[in-house]
Design goal:
This protein is mostly helical. The protein is built from 18 helices and no strands. The protein folds into two domains: 104 residues, Tetratricopeptide repeat domain (Serine Threonine Protein Phosphatase 5, Tetratricopeptide repeat); 171 residues, Serine Threonine Protein Phosphatase 5, Tetratricopeptide repeat (Alpha Horseshoe).
């Protein structure tokens, strides 16, 4: 039986939520072939692209969705957020001004405006080392050489004392070494330089969670999410922390939010599995674990 556009959209959304990216893509594509300017299908295709890191490919879909139905606030938010992610700050500001002129408002727009202002002021508030020096520090960290990465970052801080990047990587290295107090101190310094630094808030949340300070960790994750509503990893970490508090329904909701943004996030599927198992839903938990393993085959925990 041939599906209506609305039925195809619901099928696509269902596949999207459960991490079936290719299936969701097929449904959305079929809708757009029949109705190229379908607002919801365009928006969801854009969100799907952002979730897998293809932000540049998301822009045309998000723009079409907004032009087709500018009365939907989320369409404005998603489009502006994608522009900010691509560092198209002038375009993002222009679209935000256009949104305000149409009367849209709310906390999400206020946070996005602050984030945009923070990004525009970045060059005057933070002085990061050249890209090749940043990459050298990142490479050592990625190889698990936390002590060497930390030493190199601290050396660079003598030359670049206002680098939010360097304080953030110092925090990550300290956390890797189990030095959680030092990590939290470094993240606070990064945020002092760059107040709307979503990654630093997310990382600080992880360090606080390791310290057993779950309420403070949740607050940090929520701040990261308010700054960047499409921060899949922060939603996943929030879910994991809520689960540790025994707030299983909230944990599952956070994991679902993460997977809606990035269906290929193995950590989110694993966290979802743990929450579902605790909730007494072993079959659904097994499905979540299998999905995590299909994405990351060497995922020992899953």
């Amino acid at each position: 039986m041939e599906l209506t556009l609305e039925q195809a959209l619901q099928k696509g959304i269902e596949a999207h939520k459960t991490g079936k990216v290719k299936e969701a893509d097929q449904y959305y594509t079929a809708i757009l072939q029949a109705q190229p300017k379908h607002p919801d299908a365009n928006h969801n295709m854009g969100v799907l692209a952002v979730g897998v890191g293809k932000v540049d490919q998301a822009l045309p879909f998000l723009k079409t969705a907004l032009e087709a139905n500018p009365s939907i606030e989320q369409f404005w938010l998603s489009y502006i957020d994608a522009l900010v992610k691509l560092d198209k700050l002038a375009d993002a500001k222009a679209v935000l001004d256009q949104a305000k002129n149409t009367g849209v408002k709310g906390d999400a727009f206020d946070q996005l405006e602050k984030r945009l202002g923070s990004s525009e002021a970045k060059n005057s508030t933070t002085q990061d080392p050249p890209q090749n020096q940043q990459q050298s520090v990142i490479n050592l960290y990625s190889q698990g050489k936390y002590q060497q990465s930390l030493k190199q970052a601290k050396t660079l801080l003598k030359q670049f004392p206002n680098s939010s990047f360097l304080y953030n990587i110092c925090g990550a290295c300290s956390k890797g070494l189990g030095q959680f107090d030092d990590a939290i101190e470094a993240y606070n310094k990064a945020i002092a330089i760059k107040p709307y630094y979503a990654e630093a808030y997310n990382n600080m949340g992880n360090a606080l969670k390791e310290k057993g300070k779950l309420e403070q960790a949740i607050e940090a994750f929520n701040k990261a999410i308010r700054i960047d509503p499409n921060y899949a990893e922060a939603f996943s970490n929030l879910g994991n922390t809520l689960r540790k508090q025994g707030k299983l329904e909230e944990a599952i909701k956070a994991c679902n939010a993460s997977l809606l943004i990035n269906p290929d996030n193995a950590n989110s599927h694993n966290n979802m599995g743990v929450a579902l198992k605790k909730k007494g839903k072993p079959e659904e938990a097994i499905s979540a674990y299998i999905k995590a393993i299909s994405i990351k085959q060497d995922y020992a925990d899953a």
